[in-house]
Amino acid sequence: MKQRRPKKYGIVIDATRCIDCKACLIACKVENQVPEGFWRNWIRPLWSREPNLKTEFQPRQCMQCDGPACVQACPVGATYKQSNGLVAIDPIKCIGCGNCVTACPYGARYRNPVSRVADKCDFCQHRLARDEEPACVVTCPTQARIFGDLNDPRSAVSQRVAAGDLVRVTAPHVDTRPNIYYNRETRQIDWGVAPTLPGNVHMPIDFWNQNPKR
What we know:
- This protein is an alpha+beta fold.
- It has one domain (9-194): 2-Layer Sandwich (Alpha-Beta Plaits), CATH 3.30.70.20.
- It has helices at residues 23-32, 69-73, 99-103, 125-128, 135-139, 156-163, 205-210, and strands spanning 9-13, 42-46, 56-60, 79-81, 87-89, 110-111, 118-119, 145-149, 166-167, 180-183.
- The termini are far apart.
């Protein structure tokens, strides 16, 4: 019997369907109890002044990269790549140094001021454990996101990738081989984040002072 390949989760985003309603942002924030002032996902509007280009709303989040710079940057191994393709964070190991935050070329990470550890999108792992899709996927009124197992040829996301006409919106500084794909019409632009790749760990003293232990 042919052994089935392990799951590898990914998302295809059709930015032409995004209407900037921000339902995905609110759903994610509520589902994952993201603290005020921080977000696990966001939408970047790409305004166009050219007559032949339309305004584009580009949903963004952690890219669940195959070559994640954040994993290399973590000095204690708290950030790691799971067999299912997700880049995860072990809150017990995390020391809140922020090295992974600055290493991410997509600006997809932040330090949680309540738990004092790094945080980011994890495709709602608790929902995946219940065979449910991420909150942002099920909430989108225009079905701009297709989620599923990239290693399952029967899945909608795998079939969409196999059909082609997709692009990976990669940072210009480093190709981390993202597992989030966009329709080919999506504009490739500078993410506006210059990552600090593995090297210096910087412990933010002011962060700890402003967020004492409860």
